[in-house]
Amino acid sequence: MMNKALSMEMEQLTKDLVSISSVNGTSGEKKIAEFIESYLREIPYFKQHSNNVIIQSLKDDKLDRRNVFAYIKGENNNTGKTIMLHGHMDTVGVDDFGGLKEFASIATAETTDEALTIAMEKLVKFFCDNDDMDFYDAGFLCGLYANLEISQVVDPLKTARMAIDEEIVNPILKKILKKY
Protein backbone atom coordinates (compact mmCIF):
# COMPACT_ATOMS: atom_id res chain seq x y z
CA MET A 1 0.00 0.00 0.00
CA MET A 2 1.24 3.50 -0.89
CA ASN A 3 2.25 5.66 2.05
CA LYS A 4 0.01 8.61 2.88
CA ALA A 5 2.64 11.32 2.26
CA LEU A 6 3.43 10.00 -1.23
CA SER A 7 -0.27 9.70 -2.02
CA MET A 8 -0.86 13.32 -0.95
CA GLU A 9 2.15 14.50 -2.97
CA MET A 10 0.87 12.71 -6.07
CA GLU A 11 -2.58 14.23 -5.61
CA GLN A 12 -1.09 17.73 -5.27
CA LEU A 13 1.15 17.20 -8.29
CA THR A 14 -1.87 16.15 -10.35
CA LYS A 15 -3.79 19.26 -9.24
CA ASP A 16 -0.79 21.47 -10.05
CA LEU A 17 -0.38 19.92 -13.50
CA VAL A 18 -4.04 20.21 -14.51
CA SER A 19 -4.20 23.80 -13.26
CA ILE A 20 -1.70 24.81 -15.97
CA SER A 21 -3.48 25.63 -19.20
CA SER A 22 -1.24 23.79 -21.66
CA VAL A 23 -3.39 23.91 -24.78
CA ASN A 24 -1.51 22.87 -27.92
CA GLY A 25 -0.16 25.83 -29.86
CA THR A 26 -0.11 28.24 -26.89
CA SER A 27 2.51 29.56 -24.48
CA GLY A 28 1.05 27.14 -21.94
CA GLU A 29 3.10 24.37 -23.54
CA LYS A 30 6.27 26.14 -22.40
CA LYS A 31 4.81 26.79 -18.94
CA ILE A 32 4.01 23.14 -18.30
CA ALA A 33 7.46 22.06 -19.52
CA GLU A 34 9.07 24.57 -17.14
CA PHE A 35 6.91 23.31 -14.28
CA ILE A 36 7.85 19.68 -14.95
CA GLU A 37 11.55 20.53 -15.24
CA SER A 38 11.43 22.46 -11.97
CA TYR A 39 9.57 19.64 -10.22
CA LEU A 40 12.06 17.02 -11.43
CA ARG A 41 15.05 19.10 -10.36
CA GLU A 42 13.71 19.17 -6.78
CA ILE A 43 13.72 15.36 -6.54
CA PRO A 44 16.78 14.25 -4.51
CA TYR A 45 18.00 11.82 -7.21
CA PHE A 46 17.98 14.57 -9.84
CA LYS A 47 19.64 17.03 -7.45
CA GLN A 48 22.53 14.57 -7.30
CA HIS A 49 22.37 13.77 -11.03
CA SER A 50 21.37 17.13 -12.55
CA ASN A 51 22.64 16.12 -16.00
CA ASN A 52 19.98 13.41 -16.09
CA VAL A 53 17.29 16.06 -16.71
CA ILE A 54 17.53 17.11 -20.34
CA ILE A 55 15.71 20.00 -21.98
CA GLN A 56 15.36 19.98 -25.76
CA SER A 57 14.09 23.24 -27.22
CA LEU A 58 12.12 23.01 -30.44
CA LYS A 59 14.15 24.55 -33.25
CA ASP A 60 12.89 27.92 -34.54
CA ASP A 61 9.73 27.66 -32.42
CA LYS A 62 8.00 31.03 -31.88
CA LEU A 63 6.51 29.81 -28.59
CA ASP A 64 9.87 28.55 -27.27
CA ARG A 65 8.35 25.13 -26.55
CA ARG A 66 10.54 22.31 -25.33
CA ASN A 67 10.66 18.63 -24.49
CA VAL A 68 11.61 17.45 -21.04
CA PHE A 69 13.46 14.16 -20.65
CA ALA A 70 14.81 12.58 -17.50
CA TYR A 71 16.46 9.28 -16.86
CA ILE A 72 17.41 7.18 -13.88
CA LYS A 73 20.35 4.84 -14.34
CA GLY A 74 20.15 1.49 -12.58
CA GLU A 75 22.73 1.27 -9.81
CA ASN A 76 21.86 -2.03 -8.10
CA ASN A 77 23.43 -5.31 -9.20
CA ASN A 78 25.18 -3.59 -12.11
CA THR A 79 22.22 -4.29 -14.39
CA GLY A 80 22.94 -1.33 -16.59
CA LYS A 81 19.19 -0.77 -16.96
CA THR A 82 17.87 2.77 -17.28
CA ILE A 83 14.40 4.26 -16.78
CA MET A 84 13.56 7.06 -19.24
CA LEU A 85 10.88 9.62 -18.31
CA HIS A 86 9.16 11.48 -21.13
CA GLY A 87 5.60 12.05 -22.25
CA HIS A 88 3.03 14.36 -23.79
CA MET A 89 2.54 17.51 -21.75
CA ASP A 90 0.19 19.57 -23.89
CA THR A 91 -3.57 19.23 -24.05
CA VAL A 92 -5.76 19.16 -27.12
CA GLY A 93 -6.93 22.38 -28.73
CA VAL A 94 -10.14 24.01 -27.55
CA ASP A 95 -11.42 25.48 -30.82
CA ASP A 96 -14.29 22.97 -30.80
CA PHE A 97 -15.67 24.77 -27.74
CA GLY A 98 -16.58 27.80 -29.87
CA GLY A 99 -17.96 30.57 -27.66
CA LEU A 100 -17.36 28.42 -24.60
CA LYS A 101 -13.55 28.25 -24.97
CA GLU A 102 -12.98 29.95 -21.65
CA PHE A 103 -14.75 27.05 -19.94
CA ALA A 104 -12.35 24.46 -21.39
CA SER A 105 -9.73 25.21 -18.74
CA ILE A 106 -11.33 25.25 -15.35
CA ALA A 107 -9.52 26.72 -12.39
CA THR A 108 -9.55 24.52 -9.31
CA ALA A 109 -11.64 25.88 -6.45
CA GLU A 110 -11.09 24.93 -2.83
CA THR A 111 -14.68 24.22 -1.88
CA THR A 112 -17.80 23.00 -3.59
CA ASP A 113 -19.61 26.28 -2.84
CA GLU A 114 -16.71 28.28 -4.27
CA ALA A 115 -16.78 26.05 -7.35
CA LEU A 116 -20.49 26.69 -7.75
CA THR A 117 -19.98 30.45 -7.42
CA ILE A 118 -17.20 30.40 -10.02
CA ALA A 119 -19.35 28.37 -12.40
CA MET A 120 -22.35 30.64 -11.98
CA GLU A 121 -20.32 33.84 -12.38
CA LYS A 122 -18.81 32.61 -15.63
CA LEU A 123 -22.16 31.43 -16.93
CA VAL A 124 -24.07 34.58 -16.00
CA LYS A 125 -21.45 36.64 -17.82
CA PHE A 126 -21.62 34.28 -20.80
CA PHE A 127 -25.44 34.48 -20.92
CA CYS A 128 -25.41 38.28 -20.58
CA ASP A 129 -23.02 38.45 -23.53
CA ASN A 130 -25.01 35.94 -25.62
CA ASP A 131 -28.67 36.93 -25.53
CA ASP A 132 -29.61 34.53 -28.36
CA MET A 133 -29.39 31.55 -25.99
CA ASP A 134 -32.72 30.06 -24.92
CA PHE A 135 -33.65 28.93 -21.41
CA TYR A 136 -33.14 25.22 -22.18
CA ASP A 137 -29.58 25.83 -23.38
CA ALA A 138 -28.88 28.03 -20.38
CA GLY A 139 -30.21 25.48 -17.89
CA PHE A 140 -28.36 22.62 -19.53
CA LEU A 141 -25.07 24.51 -19.63
CA CYS A 142 -25.44 25.72 -16.03
CA GLY A 143 -25.90 22.16 -14.81
CA LEU A 144 -23.11 20.80 -16.96
CA TYR A 145 -20.65 23.51 -16.02
CA ALA A 146 -21.51 23.35 -12.32
CA ASN A 147 -20.90 19.60 -12.37
CA LEU A 148 -17.56 20.09 -14.14
CA GLU A 149 -16.49 22.76 -11.68
CA ILE A 150 -17.58 20.74 -8.66
CA SER A 151 -15.84 17.62 -9.95
CA GLN A 152 -12.57 19.55 -9.70
CA VAL A 153 -12.84 19.86 -5.92
CA VAL A 154 -14.77 16.84 -4.69
CA ASP A 155 -13.01 13.63 -3.69
CA PRO A 156 -14.16 11.15 -6.37
CA LEU A 157 -14.22 8.37 -3.78
CA LYS A 158 -16.90 10.19 -1.79
CA THR A 159 -20.47 11.01 -2.75
CA ALA A 160 -20.92 14.43 -4.33
CA ARG A 161 -23.99 16.65 -4.26
CA MET A 162 -25.14 16.88 -7.86
CA ALA A 163 -28.52 18.52 -7.31
CA ILE A 164 -28.26 22.02 -5.89
CA ASP A 165 -31.08 23.39 -3.75
CA GLU A 166 -32.64 26.74 -4.60
CA GLU A 167 -31.78 28.14 -1.17
CA ILE A 168 -28.11 27.66 -2.05
CA VAL A 169 -28.32 28.90 -5.63
CA ASN A 170 -30.60 31.92 -5.20
CA PRO A 171 -28.40 33.97 -2.82
CA ILE A 172 -25.33 33.30 -4.95
CA LEU A 173 -27.18 34.15 -8.15
CA LYS A 174 -28.61 37.38 -6.66
CA LYS A 175 -25.12 38.42 -5.55
CA ILE A 176 -23.69 37.72 -9.01
CA LEU A 177 -26.51 39.45 -10.89
CA LYS A 178 -25.86 42.67 -8.94
CA LYS A 179 -22.56 42.90 -10.84
CA TYR A 180 -24.40 43.00 -14.16
Question: How would you explain this protein's 3D organization?
Answer:
The protein has 180 residues and is mostly helical. The chain has two domains: 4-85, no CATH class; 95-177, no CATH class. Helix content is 45%, strand content 9%. It has six helices and three strands. Strand 2 and strand 3 (82-85) form a beta hairpin. It is elongated.
Record the SSE blueprint.
Layout (H helix, E strand, L loop, with lengths): L3 H15 L9 H14 L2 H5 L4 E5 L8 E8 L8 E4 L26 H18 L5 H17 L14 H12 L3
Antiparallel strand pairs: 1-2, 2-3
Helix pairs in contact: 4-5, 4-6
Helical amount among residues, as a percent range? 40-55%
How many structural domains are formed by the residues?
A: 2
Radius of gyration: 21 Å
Strand order of the largest sheet: 1-2-3
Shape summary: elongated
Number of helices: 6
Q: Runs with pLDDT <50, length 5+?
A: 158-163
Return the average pLDDT rounded to an integer. Answer: 73
Specify the biggest β-sheet.
3 strands, antiparallel
One letter per element, helices H and strands E, the order comes to: HHHEEEHHH
Structural class: mainly alpha
What share of the residues does DSSP label as strand, in percent? Answer: 5-15%
**Beta strands, count:** 3
Distance between the termini: 51 Å
Protein name: Peptidase M20 dimerisation domain-containing protein
Keywords: Hydrolase, Zinc
Organism: Inconstantimicrobium porci
InterPro entries: ArgE/DapE_CS, Peptidase_M20A
